[in-house]
User: Fold this.
Amino acid sequence: MFSPDSRAELDQILKRYPDKRSAILPTLYLAQRDYGYLTPKAMQEVAELLELDPTEVNTVAAFYTLFYREPVGKFVIQVCEDLPCALCGAEKIVSHLRERLGIEVGETTADGLFTLQTVMCVAGCDRAPVMQVNLKYFEGLTPESVDKILEELRSRSPEEEK
Ligand code: FES
Assistant:
């Protein structure tokens, strides 16, 4: 179930849209925040709240790479593999991350800290290669800069993530 805070937030969000259907993206975001990822139950709840067909909610959730339909780590690393990033060494960055994290693309580290994914263009092509960690961009990546980013992420306290 949505937390009381999220229900209150949703009430405010719904006031900004002409109809409930239009609020599907922010509502899915709230559901993901509360559930950790978009479980079938979470999407059913979104469908009920917005008076939509659950299939429609599922379809929208499947379209966006920032909606997770399986459990993910605290930090979701999404490396762009589209052409400009590929030409600038995205494959090397993915290999480096696989080696450093000890996981394959699509997996989560045993400590639940990192999930590694590859995605299509995240609109930072002029600063390729690019990866996104949760909602933050990291650009012009090199294996060395990736190591620094991982070190910084590992050092964050749980309070910083709230
Ligand atoms: S191709 Fe990687 S950000 Fe656009």
Strands lie at 75-80, 114-119, 131-133, 136-138.
